[in-house]
Amino acid sequence: MLGLEEQGVPCQTITYDGGGDAAALGALAARSSPLRVGIGLSASGEIALTHAQLPADAPLATGHVTDSDDHLRTLGANAGQLVKVLPLSERKLNVSYLYPHRG
């Protein structure tokens, strides 16, 4: 995953045959991970970054496999920064979780 390896955060790729949208898959991955962060990739190419404490239907950031490498790198870097409790890049984030008054 672009950006994630640059943060030095370990990741594991798993395949889930049960289908689902990217947000649901990301939530499943986050709940299954000891790091509590997950990235879901749907069959249609949608991508969702989330944390186990967030609602399953509201990922922190989203993208698509056809997005620019820059956007995908930012999404991956945000996953690593979320694990490391570092400030996130605010590019296309659902900031209502970070700053409720902006929601």
TrEMBL record:
SUPFAM superfamilies: B12-dependent dehydatase associated subunit. It comes from the Bacteria. Pfam families: Dehydratase_MU (PF02288). InterPro entries: B12-dep_deHydtase_bsu, Dehydtase/Dehydtase_re, Diol/glycerol_deHydtase_re_ssu. This is Glycerol dehydratase reactivation factor small subunit. It comes from Klebsiella pneumoniae.
